[in-house]
Amino acid sequence: MLRILLLIIGYAIGNIETGYIFGKLNKMDIRNYGSGNAGATNTLRVLGPKAGLIVFLGDFCKSLIPCLVVRFIFRDNVSLSYVYMLYIGLGVVLGHNFPFYLGFKGGKGVASTAGIIMALDYRIAFVCLAVFILIVAVTRYVSLASMVVMIIFIGMSHMFVKTDYGFTDGSSTMEFRLLVVIIGFLSIFMHRANIKRLLNGTENKIGKKV
């Protein structure tokens, strides 16, 4: 029941759709412009760098803060605190991607997932950030960088789970691994249209007007 409750709380928080709210403050529905989603990248393309940064930070913090709070509340059981943290983080991403009051049409969850990664392990977060910047600088494809980062997140989390996160119980370890995979591949799934455009050579590059 606690796991379900954390998912529900996370989903409610995830429904705070920063891109949509920022767009409305500018008298527009951001989903009707650019790539059609309410995430930071589309906001960057449509409204500029300042708006993109504000939306990114909003989506990032709405998962980072709840995840850190959950880790603190359950700090007496380190491994379980990580598992519970992933549940509320997954709920936030689901709420961001599928907000009920917007017809379940939100963003792609990259910034919110980044908040989960930072709450989980700053080392993974810094590696992901470095790789993200490198790929965007070389290819100018934000979508490609985002998907590669998710694979790194999954791989490094699995690598550290036994040595750094205090797991001694096999079932809890498996639950942690499964949640990490779900969160990472959920973001990749949300990029399925981008994957098609990348393969077709028609994907939008950062800095290009849409």
Automatic annotation (TrEMBL):
Annotated pathway, please?
Lipid metabolism; phospholipid metabolism
> What Enzyme Commission number(s) appear in the record?
2.3.1.275
What are the protein's UniProt keywords?
Acyltransferase, Cell membrane, Lipid biosynthesis, Lipid metabolism, Membrane, Phospholipid biosynthesis, Phospholipid metabolism, Transferase, Transmembrane, Transmembrane helix
| Membrane topology designation | Multi-pass membrane protein
Q: Where is the major localization of this protein?
A: membrane
Query: Which molecular function terms from Gene Ontology are attached?
Result: acyl-phosphate glycerol-3-phosphate acyltransferase activity
Q: Does the keyword Lipid metabolism apply?
A: yes
**Top EC class of this enzyme:** transferase
Transmembrane regions = 81-102, 114-137, 144-161, 176-195
Q: Which domain of life is it from?
A: Bacteria
Q: Where in the cell is it found?
A: Cell membrane
- InterPro entries this protein is in? G3P_acylTferase_PlsY
In the record, biological process GO terms are: phospholipid biosynthetic process
For whether the record's keyword set contains Phosphoprotein, the answer is no
Q: Any one cellular component term from GO for this entry?
A: plasma membrane
Q: Which Pfam families match?
A: G3P_acyltransf
- Which reaction equations make up its catalytic activity? an acyl phosphate + sn-glycerol 3-phosphate = a 1-acyl-sn-glycero-3-phosphate + phosphate
Tell me, in a sentence or two, what this protein's role is. Catalyzes the transfer of an acyl group from acyl-phosphate (acyl-PO(4)) to glycerol-3-phosphate (G3P) to form lysophosphatidic acid (LPA). This enzyme utilizes acyl-phosphate as fatty acyl donor, but not acyl-CoA or acyl-ACP.
Subunit-structure text: Probably interacts with PlsX.
Q: Would you identify the family this protein belongs to, as annotated?
A: Belongs to the PlsY family.
Name of protein: Glycerol-3-phosphate acyltransferase
Instruction: Tell me what organism the protein belongs to.
Output: Lachnoanaerobaculum gingivalis
